[in-house]
Amino acid sequence: MAQVHGCLGSPIKQAISRYDNNPLGPEAPSYAVSPAHLFQLGRPPRGDILILDFGEASFASELRKQWHTPIVLKAPEALLGEPVGQPADIWAFACTVFAIFDNTALFASGMPNSDDILAEIVDTLGRLPEPWWQKWNYRGEFYEEDGRKKTEDLMEEYQEARPLAVRIRQMRSSPPAARDAEQLSEEDLAGLQELLEHCFRYKPEDRVTAEDILKLDWIRKLSVDMLYVLES
């Protein structure tokens, strides 16, 4: 832990308080910690840092309806109560990769519920396929039936859809992400976009597998770069 603090600095703690100024209950932490900016190290992170899980584990062959992955990482099938399997992990992985570079969740702002997340997904990736579109009971709160966004009650900056390619390019200009994302080359941005586009397919069976991800040119290049850092 001392080595981590030596590289990234001591954790920045933010005190937690209630809106009504009453004392915190036993279910609430007394403080939160701001995220660390790995790319301030000036070199790629160590290659032996692993993502362990996304909230829980299950057998690979098992399809489940109850899925306790954090809501900002949930695939649309999980948000809509459909059976969930390994492809949902690929979706969660892609959300995590985006958050590592942008320091914010791709499909969330504030304290979202399932409908807010689905709206962000549609805003970024387009209209949900059938029968998911009809199954989303609150779609009319956000969109017309043809998928056009309802804008009459939105601030001007939120009236336009923000496709994935736009969101990736905006990382360089939206602090605090800019400190990390500004170090991404055009090649890196293109590689990141290719990775996310393969992972963010609506139909679970159309998403890449973990094995497919390892074959992507950008991932292979990152692996070589990290190996070089570890050996130097």
Description:
By secondary structure, the chain is mostly helical. Helix content is 39%, strand content 3%. The chain contains 10 helices and 2 strands; from the N terminus they run H-E-E-H-H-H-H-H-H-H-H-H. It has helices at 2-8, 76-79, 86-102, 114-125, 132-135, 164-170, 178-181, 186-199, 210-215, 217-231; strands at 13-15, 31-33. It has a two-stranded antiparallel sheet with strand order 1-2. Helix 3 (86-102) runs antiparallel to helix 8 (186-199). The chain is globular and about 50 Å long. It starts with a helix and ends with a helix.
General shape:
globular
Unreliable stretches: 227-232
Most strands sheet:
2 strands, antiparallel
Q: Number of helix segments?
A: 10
Terminal residue distance: 22 Å
DSSP summary, beta strand count: 2
- The structural class is mainly alpha
Mean pLDDT: 80
What portion of residues belong to β-strands? under 5%
Series of secondary-structure elements, N-terminal to C-terminal: HEEHHHHHHHHH
Rg calc: 19 Å
Helix share, percent: 25-40%
Strand order of the largest sheet: 1-2
Short structural description:
This protein has 232 residues and is mainly alpha-helical. The chain contains ten helices and two strands, in the order αββααααααααα. It has a two-stranded antiparallel ribbon.
